[in-house]
Amino acid sequence: MTTYAFRCQECGPYDARFPIGTAPDRASCPECGGSSVRLITAPGIGRGSDPYRRAVERTTASADAPQVVSSVPGSGRRAPAVTTHPLHRRLPRP
User: Fold this and answer.
1) Are 6 and 12 in contact (CB under 8 A)?
2) Residue 52's domain spans which residues?
3) Please, are residues 47 and 53 in contact by the beta-carbon 8 Å criterion?
């Protein structure tokens, strides 16, 4: 079932669900029963995979209400304090 938008002259816009490709050009308004015309709107298609959608939602939410953190998030990987590579012995020391 797909959601289609209609506009009643008396009550204004409303949505109605019909199987894909079977929506009529005119439908009766659920409020007053009057005739209403179908509106042409942007399709409501999926926005990609679940991780992508969640990333977009987090980005959109952070535009209005950014999360406050107390420290810089780390990656969990740290560089070794002492290198064991033999060529690194020739580098100048600070």
Assistant:
1) no
2) 1-59
3) yes
pLDDT score at 52: 80
Terminal CA-CA length for the chain:
69
**Exposed/middle/buried for residue 28 (C-beta within 10 Å: 0-12, 13-18, 19+):** middle
Q: Is residue 5 part of a domain?
A: yes
The letter for the amino acid at 86 is: P
14 lies in some domain: yes
Q: Which two tokens stand for residue 26?
A: 């005119």
* Count of domains observed in the chain: 1
SS3 assignment for 21-65: CCCCCEEECCCCCCEEEECCCCCCCCCCCHHHHHHHHHHHHHHHC
Give the predicted TM-score (pTM) of the model: 0.47
For 11-64, the pLDDT digits (tens) are: 999 999 999 888 899 999 999 989 999 998 877 666 567 888 788 888 888 777
